[in-house]
Amino acid sequence: MSTTVPRQTSVGPPTSEDKPEGPIAAAIIAGGVGALALGTLTTLAEASAGVKDFLDFYDPVGPLSGKTTYAVVIWLLAWAISHAVFRRSQYESRRALAVALLLVGLGVLGTFPTFFQLFAAA
User: Fold this and answer.
1) 81: left (phi over 0), alpha (psi -120 to 50) or beta
2) Backbone phi, then psi, for 62, in 5-degree steps?
3) Nearest by Cα to 23 from 108, 80, 104, 101
4) CB neighbourhood size of 106 (10 A)
5) What is the distance, to the nearest Å, from the Cα of residue 77 to the centroid of all Cα atoms in its chain?
């Protein structure tokens, strides 16, 4: 008695058409936006005493507490908004990665002391 298992010919690896890549692209781009936000807030805090005071949530930490808090809030908002925009689209992940790498690069630049000290308030 041998039993034969029917062969399934239509099952294969999932294709890119099965699920949209928009949510993935949204998460990648949002990470870049969050990094850019941190770099921008760091530079703005150095350039303006008012911004520096505004970002000082907790005295022992200084304005770093506000910079990181706002950067995380901006990242989450960017993720939510971009997810809503791209959730059903076939946004190309490579293009999203290129955009995110550019944004992360600009964000990292904004956190380097040699850069943000160029904008120091006199």
Assistant:
1) alpha
2) 80, -155
3) 80
4) 14
5) 10
- pLDDT tens-place string over residues 60-94: 999 999 999 999 999 999 999 999 999 888 888 89
Token pair belonging to 122: 């006199």
Q: Answer for the pair 39, 108: CB distance below 8 angstroms, yes or no.
A: yes
Take residue 61 and report the two structure tokens written for it: 């930490």
Sequence-distant (≥ 6) Cβ neighbours of residue 106 within 8 angstroms: 35, 36, 39
Query: Alpha-carbon Rg of the chain, whole angstroms?
Result: 22
Overall pTM > 0.85:
no
Supply φ then ψ for residue 58, to 5 degrees. -140, 110
